[in-house]
Amino acid sequence: MENQSYFLVKSYMKGELAHLYNPNTSIRTANRILMEWIERNNELNTALAKLGMRKCDRIFPPRAVQLIVQHLGEP
Predict the structure, then answer these.
(1) 65 in a domain, yes or no?
(2) Would you state the pLDDT for residue 2?
(3) How far, in Å, are 41, 62, 75 from residue 51 at the CA level?
(4) Which of 16, 23, 57, 61 yields a CA-CA distance of 20 to 30 A from 7?
């Protein structure tokens, strides 16, 4: 049987997506960790900025989620 992925690319609240990547931490900590990963990944950070994403945004639209998954893998 193949290993199937069930992750859905859609709009996510920032904390919601962060918690999918770091489920064993609080949402606040998960959010901090995800944002650090994004900031350290220059290519991803630049791509998100080109979409008009800002650090203070609370929602990742589907295109941003797709970029994050391309660079960090599925949560």
Answers:
(1) yes
(2) 55
(3) 16, 11, 21
(4) 57
Q: What residues contact residue 49 under an 8 Å CB cut-off, 6+ apart?
A: none
Residue 6 belongs to some domain of the structure:
no
The arithmetic mean of pLDDT across residues 14-28, rounded, is 96
Q: What's the rounded Cα separation, in Å, for the pair 1 and 9?
A: 23
Q: How many domains does the chain have?
A: 1
The answer to whether residues 62 and 10 touch, using CB atoms and an 8 Å cutoff, is yes
> Structural domain of residue 50, as residue ranges?
12-72
In a domain, 27, yes or no: yes
Q: What integer pLDDT is reported at residue 49 of this predicted model?
A: 96
**How far apart are alpha carbons 52 and 3 in whole angstroms?**
34
23 within a domain of the structure (yes/no) = yes
pLDDT one-digit tens code per residue, 25-71: 999 999 999 999 999 999 999 999 999 999 899 999 999 999 999 99
